[in-house]
Write a structure and sequence with these properties.
The complex is a heterodimer.
Chain A: E1 3-9, H1 13-24, E2 30-33, H2 37-41, H3 57-70, E3 75-77, E4 80-85, E5 89-93, E6 97-105, H4 117-120, E7 127-128, H5 131-134, E8 142-146, H6 150-159, E9 165-169, H7 179-182, E10 186-188, E11 192-196, E12 203-206, E13 211-213, E14 216-219, H8 226-233, E15 237-238, E16 241-242, E17 255-257, H9 268-290
Parallel strand pairs in A: 1-2, 1-6, 2-3, 6-17, 7-14, 8-9, 8-14, 9-10
Antiparallel strand pairs in A: 4-5, 5-6, 11-12, 12-13, 15-16
Chain B: E1 3-4, H1 10-15, E2 21-26, H2 31-45, E3 52-57, H3 62-67, E4 75-80, E5 83-89, H4 94-100
Parallel strand pairs in B: 1-3, 2-3
Antiparallel strand pairs in B: 2-4, 4-5
Classes of the chains: A alpha/beta, B alpha/beta.
Chain lengths: ~290, ~100
């Protein structure tokens, strides 16, 4: 098993900044990324230091990747699916499994939220954000996963051996998985219009007013972002952001978080600062392991 | 130390308790439960007779989890006078758990 010293998940302002500070401190990280997230959607950026004329977010993102290449920092374009901790970090992507001593979460924050406001009230009584934690409660029951990508499929696969039936609800979106990947997992592409139940969630209503019975709904929208990963590692999440110490550390040794996923100003300047701090702190941590 | 609550002692230790009881529903395979455990222990250490803290392993006592509609772990509940009066789901800050005991 090959062990990386440091993996950085995300190659936006926080991830790139973390990588640059790590490499300057003597540790070459492995950077995982899957597209530019919020930054790539920014049409014009002009409020950042040193820009004599506005740039697009997509340009800035590409420049960041080129900057990593110029420092010979390895970059892999793979979607992050899950992270486990047992003293070291096991990082699972759509293509590979990596192992590292230290990990920086910098994959940004999802802007998409629960499809229906009714679902919010069933948090704790039918809604879950962690299949590996809560699948236990749905043995022999019918469950659904809300999402349409590899992350939703990953969660559905965790539930498949436990539940009587697993359906992925894409809520009107195209499912990004093949028949072969799905196996026995059902896919429902119709949009959701409401959800209900008495003490706990028992159904969702589809756009044609038909009802799908279920006991549990697991949320796995879009790609697994840093907050999704952190929640499953047991970090405190407040207002959908990871609670970090001022130096970007977390209660898990060697785990840091930086950028939009930690809340506050959703700005490049703040992400760059936190990335720099996380990169430096991760290297300091790795040095303590050696000494 | 937080006491282990099972079907055998639930009624006596929780429902018949004169003081508030905080219960942490957990499982050995749940990483967030492991992260919350030291916080639960810390609250148990400083209870000083004002409240009790117990842990229910949902693997060993699934019927207690079902009885109280626990469908996510960790879930922390507070019982007063034999009734469940508050609950939190997931890993929450210590301050939130302390507030539940007040």
């Amino acid at each position: 098993m090959e062990m990386e010293k440091l993996i950085i998940a995300g190659a936006g302002p926080a991830g790139v900044s973390a990588a640059l500070y790590a490499v300057r401190s003597g540790i070459t990280p492995l950077v995982l990324h899957k597209g530019g997230g919020a930054l790539e959607k920014a049409v014009k950026i002009e409020n950042y230091y040193g820009l004599s004329k506005p740039v697009t977010g997509a340009e800035l993102y590409q420049n960041g990747l080129k900057q990593l290449e110029s420092f010979q920092i390895p970059i892999v374009e793979e979607e992050l699916l899950a992270v486990e901790y047992d003293g070291d970090y096991t990082v699972r992507t759509t293509d590979h499994t990596y192992h590292s001593r230290s990990l920086i979460l910098a994959t940004g924050a999802k802007r998409n939220t629960l499809a229906l406001k009714e679902l919010k009230k069933y948090e704790g009584s039918g809604i879950s954000y962690c299949a590996v934690c809560d699948g236990f409660f749905y043995r022999g029951k019918e469950v659904a996963v809300l999402g349409n990508g590899a992350y939703a499929l990953h969660e559905a696969k965790v539930l498949e051996p436990l539940a009587a039936k697993v359906t992925i609800l894409t809520n009107g979106k195209e499912g990004e998985f093949s028949e072969k990947d799905l196996g026995g997992i059902q896919v429902e592409t119709r949009k959701l219009i409401s959800a209900g139940g008495d003490a706990s969630l028992s159904y969702v209503e589809l756009e044609d007013h038909s009802r799908l019975s279920l006991s549990g709904l697991f949320v796995a929208l879009g790609t697994a972002d840093s907050t999704d990963i952190a929640r499953k590692l047991g970090l405190v999440i407040e207002n959908n952001h990871i609670l970090i110490e001022p130096d970007t550390s977390t209660p898990l040794p060697g785990l840091y978080a930086a950028g939009d996923c930690t809340g506050g100003m959703l700005q490049i300047a703040k992400a760059v600062y936190e990335g720099a701090l996380a990169g430096t702190r991760a290297v300091n941590y790795l040095k303590t392991l050696q000494s | 130390m937080a006491m282990e609550i099972t079907m055998d002692n639930f009624e006596q230790e929780v429902l018949n308790s004169d003081i508030p009881v905080m219960i942490d529903f957990w499982a050995s395979w749940c990483m967030p439960c492991k992260m919350l455990a030291p916080v639960i222990e810390e609250l148990a250490e400083k209870a000083n007779g004002a409240y009790k803290v117990g842990k229910i392993d949902v693997d060993r006592a699934p019927s207690l989890a079902a009885q109280f509609g626990v469908m996510n772990i960790p879930t922390v509940m507070v019982f007063k006078n034999g009734k469940a009066v508050d609950r939190s789901v997931g890993v929450v800050p210590k301050s939130q758990l302390e507030a539940m005991l007040k």
